[in-house]
Design brief:
There is one protein chain. The protein is mainly alpha-helical. It contains 13 helices and no strands. The radius of gyration is 17 Å and the shape is elongated. The protein starts with a helix and ends with a helix. About 10% of the residues have low confidence.
């Protein structure tokens, strides 16, 4: 569990560096995630599913701890965290936004859909963050979410759309328009990961 949590943060941080969207890169970079005492404490809260202990860290002054606390709810999956996690979708640090989107998707409640969709259509949202948002929308899928994904401009984040449709199909939420979009995403102009997601979606329905 700890390795998975730290691995998720490492992946988020790497993608964050590549897109150069964070204002707290140097601060986050200075934390040794394997030796930091607070990181270990947060992991214990996650492992013991202590929602009340984790929630205050969603507003910690350090973006790293906000992100760690947010992603912890991807494991805890407590609906009580939805409200503060939705607030984090407007965080100034992309790492935190991605972690919040990931957690909201894991919780999978439809009340997270509106802020997820709003952030995914914000022109200032970078493509890597859009991926986490669109995937989360698929995990929270209902007919509204599927309509959103099916009409989302695929060039803005093709892998995110493919992942969102794929995740929605896990909940048996599918549509004819989604089929058309997924078929388009199998084109060779898109990445291999995108084509695999779209093809898997098509094979399911």
């Amino acid at each position: 569990m700890l390795q998975n949590s730290l691995y998720f943060l490492a992946l988020c941080y790497l993608s964050l560096c590549m897109t150069s969207c964070s204002s707290s890169t140097e601060e986050t970079q200075s934390i040794n995630i394997y030796q930091d005492a607070l990181t270990q404490q947060l992991y214990q809260y996650q492992d013991q599913r202590q929602t009340d202990s984790l929630i205050p860290y969603l507003s910690h002054k350090d973006a790293y701890y906000r992100a760690f606390a947010a992603q912890a709810f991807g494991s805890v999956q407590d609906s009580m965290a939805i409200k503060p996690l939705k607030i984090l979708l407007d965080d100034t640090d992309s790492l935190v936004v991605r972690a919040a989107a990931y957690a909201l998707g894991q919780i999978g409640h439809t009340q997270a859909l509106h802020p997820l969709m709003a952030k995914a259509t914000d022109a200032k949202t970078d493509m890597e963050t859009r991926f986490y948002l669109l995937e989360a929308i698929g995990k929270c899928a209902n007919d509204t979410a599927l309509t959103f994904l099916s009409n989302y401009p695929i060039k803005d984040c093709p892998k995110g759309v493919a992942s969102g449709l794929f995740r929605a199909s896990n909940k048996k939420v599918v549509s004819g328009k989604g089929l058309t979009v997924a078929t388009a995403l199998t084109s060779s102009e898109f990445s291999e990961d995108t084509r695999i997601l779209a093809s898997t979606y098509l094979a399911r329905i």
